[in-house]
Design brief:
With 264 residues, this protein is of the alpha/beta class. The chain is built from nine helices and seven strands, in the order βαβαβαβαβαβααβαα. It has a seven-stranded parallel β-sheet, with helices on both faces. The protein starts with 5 loop residues before the first strand and ends in a 7-residue tail after the last helix. Keywords: Oxidoreductase.
Length: 264
């Protein structure tokens, strides 16, 4: 139906993405779930269908394979006939020192977090242009605004997103297409467990800071509120959010504090 609201969420198989699925179903949306794992997506979709029958669909998408994303986009549009909102949530983190990290790790971080992200957006933009409206939300990070130890490649990939989406927003200012950049801090997900180490293997342990972070459900609620208000950029987290303002207004002090900050 043309009047139904449809959101496409990537990285929907766990963490913030999975919480966003529930958040938008409760808000009356039909939800398209994407990630690499078909089994996980179908399990979440099947569970949601018990309460929201006919309101979910699954489209497998691998952001590292950018050539496959236009086809994934077409498949996503076909599920409910249109898409109102894309939430680019999928991504991968890093926990390794710059001097020790293999260049292949940086390559993968940029492919997944940046190139795959913008490739999916570019594939969907003609659909938005044709409808005369649309909204893209991208899950960046607080380290998309400043660098942090153990995250040089991750921070770089998130910084790149800000450059792209700020430019796209300016170019499409009069097109009724909106862009929201979300910058979470420490959220209690498996992002650190799955983070790449120096040789590309997963860390397989949760950071203390991550374990003590905000729940993904509360984060998802705040994300939906920010998107609904069409905010350009929003920062979500606990005390770590203050680091953003320290960096902006007192960069010298920030530079002295950062090397000793507890970021794991």
């Amino acid at each position: 139906m043309a009047d139904q609201k449809v959101v496409w969420i990537t990285g929907a198989s766990s963490g913030i993405g999975e919480a966003l699925v529930d958040e938008y179903l409760k808000d009356g949306y039909s939800v398209i779930l994407s990630a690499r794992s078909k089994d996980k997506l179908e399990a979440i979709s099947d569970q949601a269908s018990l309460t929201y029958p006919g309101k979910t669909a699954v489209v497998v998408a691998d952001l590292e394979d950018t050539d496959s994303l236009p086809a994934a986009c077409e498949m996503a549009i076909q599920q409910f006939g249109h898409i109102d909102l894309l939430i680019n949530n999928a991504g991968i983190s890093q926990r390794s020192l710059t001097l020790e990290t293999d260049i292949s790790v940086y390559d993968r971080l940029m492919k997944v977090n940046y190139l795959g992200n913008i490739a999916l957006t570019k594939a969907l933009l003609p659909h938005f242009m044709g409808r005369g409206k649309g909204h893209v939300a991208v899950i960046s990070s607080l380290v998309g605004k400043f660098g942090s130890p153990y995250r040089s490649g991750y921070a770089a990939s998130k910084h790149a997103l800000h450059g792209f989406y700020d430019s796209a927003r300016a170019e499409l200012h009069d097109s009724n297409i909106h862009f929201t950049i979300v910058c979470p801090g420490f959220i209690r997900t498996n992002v650190s467990v799955n983070a790449l180490t120096a040789d590309g293997q997963p860390l397989n342990q949760m950071d203390d800071a991550q374990a003590k972070g905000m729940s993904p459900e509360r984060c998802a609620h705040k994300i939906r509120q920010a998107i609904k208000k069409r905010k350009n950029e929003v920062y979500i987290g606990g005390k770590e959010v203050y680091a953003l303002y320290l960096k902006r207004f007192f960069p010298g002090i920030f530079a002295r504090i950062l090397p000793g900050a507890k970021v794991r």
